[in-house]
Amino acid sequence: MNEQQIVDRATTLAEMAPHESVTTAVLAGNEGRFSTVTPLHEAPVTYLESAEAPAYVLTNGKRGIGRGTKRNTVTPASDRRTIILVTGRRTLCLIGRESSDEVIEIPHESVAGAAYKTGFRANRLALRTPRKIYHCWVHRKVEESLLDATTAFIEDRQSDTPEEIDGDDDANRVMYRGQPVKKQQSEATDDSETSQTVMYRGQPVDNSE
Questions:
Q1: Among 83, 84, 95, 153, which lies 20 to 30 A Cα-Cα from 63?
Q2: In whole angstroms, what is the distance from residue 148 CA to residue 143 CA?
Q3: Any bridge partners for residue 134, and if so which?
Q4: Spelled out in words, what is the top-level CATH class assigned to the domain 54-202?
Q5: What is the per-residue pLDDT across 152-180, written as a single tens digit (0 to 9) for each?
Q6: pTM of the entire structure?
Q7: Which residues of the chain have pLDDT under 50?
């Protein structure tokens, strides 16, 4: 796909999208929603299948995507960002790394639960699969209405019997700076939730888990 084809497809998908978070600039890889920095090595639209269209786009700068725990994260390189595309079949997390983009795919049929959390420094979309939770960090400027709509969109498409995702065997290993640590240590030092409220379809829910 050449540059003009990328722009043309990005424009078409942006015009089709039900939410203004899906823009030509973001899909074509020219900039993030809240930044003029080129977020990825490849245009986000090139990671979509031919018949796939994004309904919502979420972004973050440095926090990346947490797998299993918020400590076990894939973070973007210093000059890159994270783009999260929510389509009719999956949540596609794209993280710009040093020499390429890392892709984390969460099919809707593998989601056992979805919720979002708002915080002073950042927001977060939490997607629970049979083996772990994916923590999709979201820019703090993202409107709560977008988080609520995205969560409801995913929940409406999740399965009653969610399927496990291949490669999730180490989902519950607690990692810090690439090394496994004791669970007690992670719980004691993880204070990122103190200023966050868990929401589900616009209503606060219990965050005791």
A1: 153
A2: 9
A3: 67, 127
A4: mainly beta
A5: 999 999 988 888 876 554 433 333 333 34
A6: 0.78
A7: 169-195, 207-209
